[in-house]
Amino acid sequence: MRSSPEGLWRTPKQFITVAAVLLVAAMSAAVPQAEAPFRPGPILYQDDFSHGLDRWTPELERPGTVEARGSALNIDVPAGCTLWWKPELSGPVLIQYEAIMVRRGGPNDRVSDLNCFWMATDARSPGDFFAVPRSGKFADYDQLRTYYVGLGGNSNTTTRFRRYIGRQDDRPLLPEHDLRSSEFLLRPNVAQTIRLVAFGDRIQYLRDGRLIFDFTDAAPYTRGRFGLRTTASHVLVRQFRVYRLIAR
User: Distance between CA 68 and CA 5 in Å, rounded?
Assistant: First the structure.
């Protein structure tokens, strides 16, 4: 029997010892964390998926399930799927959402590809993002100008950051943006918070507060669309937010 989205968000309370707390505190004191040069400001957009998906545009390679259910977005698909937030975003912005990669024995419960685009425009139709149809196949997105992270891609063996430049069959990848350690991959049935930053030339990707990619772009993309992306997987998403970022 398949679990409901609500059930997957409920996890047992975790208990830690006083010694562990003291150790974490000592490590934090020993290694000061640099303060970000910006902070979240007002919320520009939000969606708790309690009123359907009228503000999203799906692109599916093959038929699958994309639905708002139980205050969560349920994506359960056998092939490529991108779901675009319709309003265009203009920086500086912070995009935030929670996600679970579902593994409960379903046909698409593969645990791979919690991916995203942000600040995306299409080189084929710069003035109208939705003028050129896209099928949901990954190659259909080559001609975007966008930032992209494939978290747990390639059957959960890689996590990669790319800056797309709008050319077919050309998805530049720097060696330092190709991560393969297990700490950067996906775990099933665990809620995680994703944060995407576009603050002028500063582009960041964070998971659960940990900075994974920090990129300085000499020619930054400062406006465009946000898109959730997966392939042959089952994903639950909730608490989508877009914040204006404010300089400290």
Answer: 10
CA 232/CA 235 separation, integer angstroms:
10
**CA 98, chain centre distance (Å):** 9
41 burial via Cβ count (<10 Å: 0-12, 13-18, 19+): middle
Q: How buried is residue 65: exposed, middle or buried, by Cβ count under 10 Å (0-12/13-18/19+)?
A: middle
Indicate the average pLDDT of the chain. 89
Q: Is the pLDDT of residue 129 over 90?
A: yes
DSSP 150-210: EEEHHHHTEEEEEEEESBTTB----GGGEE-SGGGS--TT--EEEEEEEETTEEEEEETTE
Please state the pTM of the whole predicted model: 0.87
Taking a C-beta distance cutoff of 8 angstroms, is the pair 69, 221 a contact? no
Q: Token pair of 96, please?
A: 């935030």
Cβ neighbors of 94 (< 8 A, separation 6 or more) are 40, 195, 196, 197, 241, 242, 243, 244, 245
pLDDT digits (tens, 9 = 90+) for 36-51: 899 999 999 999 999 9
CB count within 10 Å of CB 92 equals 19
What average pLDDT does this structure show over 20-24?
33
Domains defined along the chain, listed by start: 5-247 (2.60.120.560)
The pLDDT of 74-101, averaged and rounded, is 98
Q: In the chain, what percentage of residues exceed pLDDT 70? A: 87
